[in-house]
Amino acid sequence: MTEIRLSPAPLTAQAFKPYGGVIETAACAPRSINQGYAQRFNDLCGVDAAREGGAVNVSLFTANPRPHPIAIQLMERHPLGSQAFIPMQERPWLVLVCDDPLDVSTYHLFSATGRQGVNYACNVWHHPLLVFDADSHFLIIDRKGPGENLEEVWLPEAWRVEAFANQP
Amino acid sequence: MTEIRLSPAPLTAQAFKPYGGVIETAACAPRSINQGYAQRFNDLCGVDAAREGGAVNVSLFTANPRPHPIAIQLMERHPLGSQAFIPMQERPWLVLVCDDPLDVSTYHLFSATGRQGVNYACNVWHHPLLVFDADSHFLIIDRKGPGENLEEVWLPEAWRVEAFANQP
Predict the structure, then answer these.
(1) Closest Cβ–Cβ partner in A25, A63, A140 for B37
(2) Which domains does chain A have, with CATH numbers?
(3) Which ipTM was obtained for this model?
(4) Nearest-CB residue to A59 (from B35, B44, B128)
(5) What digits encode the pLDDT tens for the residues A23-80?
(6) Which value, to the nearest 10 degrees, does the dihedral of the CA atoms of residues B121, B127, B129, B131 take?
């Protein structure tokens, strides 16, 4: 049995750059609009949805908390488009990515604040939504259309991979 | 002086249909995904952003409350794309649309719950964000790119148009 404990690093745009973008207003100077009654944090993520006849798909996910530490059993990727996750309730969550699902040395776990979303670039391996607190709403911007846009890899049964919300 | 008091009707998909779509999960049966750890309310709004070399723009607005009743002074529309507003904090808000900004008989005011967004269709006259409670975050999905995508009409100075959050 191979046991792997993943502990999170803070999510930053720089650390996440190989995997896509961080969706946050912290680094963005807003523009005053609507006669001064609103501030616009503009253009926070790219959307890659038009490949092979695809179109933008706007959805809402309700994610359910998983037992902590979280057992990691599979990774997935979307070969035809990007996928953005934006938390709606300001609750912290976890983001797990890797270069190769079968090489655990390539796994990176990030702790996102409730005001940080992520936009996985096309073809980036990631874990489905990871929340550990309460049912949490996320807005999703990804791709719909023809073609197979989901690839999954289940981890070997001889691995026990656990994701911790904090240092274990 | 022409005085017009607008009182809201509840926002429903049917009533709003001439102007675009209502973004809500109420009428959508979710699909279980992520090994049962999430529910997906899929494809909640169309995105019309590709005209004339445009692309999708994902932004966050912070809307500031206006004094109540709200003085209506201008209407706007976007001739090159749709514009979706999704509330992030479950606070009620107001949606004002019209067929002709200079014909007040065509104005329709809707009260949206904090779990309802709207997607203005391309070229639909609407008022900028209307909140009356506290600073409120909205996620916006609209268009960026070449061309002039904003048209504004200021109402005649001889009009006093007021929008009420409830029956006045």
Answers:
(1) A63
(2) 2-163 (2.60.120.480)
(3) 0.95
(4) B44
(5) 999 989 999 999 999 999 999 999 999 999 999 999 999 999 999 999 999 999 999 9
(6) -130
